[in-house]
Design goal:
With about 350 residues, the protein is α/β, with parallel strands linked by helices. The protein has 9 helices and 13 strands. The strands form 4 sheets. It has a 6-stranded mixed beta sheet, sandwiched between helices. It has a 3-stranded antiparallel beta sheet with strand order 4-5-6. Helix 1 crosses helix 9.
């Protein structure tokens, strides 16, 4: 089944104006007063100093992304806490009932799988998929869990849930060799070549696709069989989709076998990692509402053929479209205030000082 692009349902001047309103302003100096995103970066047991240096490099990339996004950052595993194990620190952080608009959890290191249980190797007790899932239950806002370690595939089946994006470096728990996917993902997150739709922003989906392609190319260049195949799940069907099953930003028609309301990719494309131009990263409650409305509209469009009466379909579509337009209008008004404050207020201040 061919799926229309997320914004194709908006037509003509309305589509152009709304998208431009969302994307054509400079950095917002008032964002610190808004609800923000949270990024938790966890460094696992390094094993050797060589791996430790690689993990530190990947972590530095994510820390820079957090700074650019003005996201709240928690770094675990880079230092020793004599009172608590790294496992306790991770689970405690996830249980914090703070009012964020989104949480990013990035797990960097090694993994193991004994045929029954997959583990992310920490200093001290390891983190299992079940323990991580239980800690994530309390998180009601959008959550992205990025598993950059070997044997990580079982984490996808366990963590797959509504309003979550789950990425694993492998497609099975038996892909146990060192995974290079995390390296390519940390770099693709800020590489302008990852911006497939050329909208000036790099989404988690775009970075995932770029990293998946680069991982495959790495093994081809070495003349070796690939020992890792990454997966992405964001529609809660516990299946996951490989990068080579996408054409552009959408799954190829033959690869869509899910019974979920949408194929994989749409929610991951709403998680914005970085910008390739001087654009404002839309955040806060308005972005959260916008993303929810877009998903509802896409899900409704998927069910269009099931309506015996198209009047009923449009009756349900119209209020969603109106609410979405109001969200964009409020963003536009806010941007105008930001521009006014950054241009007029400094000028008045200068005049007063004279």
């Amino acid at each position: 089944m061919h799926l229309e692009k997320p914004y194709r349902f908006l037509t003509g001047v309305i589509c152009l104006s709304l998208l431009l309103h969302c994307q054509t302003t400079l950095a917002d100096p008032s964002r610190s007063a808004e609800k923000t995103e949270r990024m938790i970066v966890v460094l696992g047991a390094e094993g050797t100093s060589e791996y430790g240096q690689q993990f530190a490099d990947w972590s530095n990339c994510w820390q820079q992304l957090a700074a650019d996004k003005q996201a709240a950052l928690t770094l675990i595993g880079d230092s020793v806490d004599a009172r608590h194990s790294d496992l306790e620190l991770v689970l405690h952080e996830l249980h914090q009932q703070t009012d964020y608009t989104a949480t990013w959890l990035i797990l960097i290191g090694h993994g193991t799988f004994d045929g029954k249980t997959a583990r992310f190797n920490l200093r001290g007790p390891d983190l299992t998929a079940d323990a991580l899932n239980q800690s994530c239950h309390a998180i009601q806002h959008p959550l992205a869990v990025i598993n950059c370690f070997s044997s990580s595939a079982p984490f996808l089946e366990t963590l797959s849930a509504k309003n979550r994006v789950v990425i694993t470096a492998t497609k099975t728990g038996h892909e146990f060799y060192f995974s290079h996917f995390g390296n390519f993902l940390s770099q693709a997150a800020s590489d302008k070549l990852s911006d497939l739709d050329h909208d000036g922003q790099i989404s988690l989906l775009e970075a995932y696709l770029a990293a998946s392609r680069q991982t495959s190319e790495y093994y081809l260049e070495k003349g070796e069989l690939a020992t890792e195949h990454s997966l992405l799940d964001d529609n809660a069907d516990q299946q996951g989709t490989r990068g080579d099953q996408f054409q552009g930003l959408h799954q190829t028609p033959g690869s869509v076998t899910t019974t979920a309301s949408l194929p994989d990719g749409f929610r991951a494309h709403q998680f914005i990692l970085s910008t390739t131009q001087r654009l404002r990263l839309v955040s806060g409650e308005q972005k959260q509402l916008r993303d929810e409305l877009e998903i509802k509209i896409l899900e409704l469009k998927q069910r269009k053929a099931s309506f015996a009466n198209l009047d009923e379909y449009y009756k349900q579509l119209e209020p969603l479209m109106v609410e979405l337009a109001n969200v964009y209008r409020s963003l536009d008004q806010k941007e105008k205030r930001i521009i006014y404050d950054s241009q007029v207020v400094p000028a008045n201040a200068k005049k007063t000082s004279q």
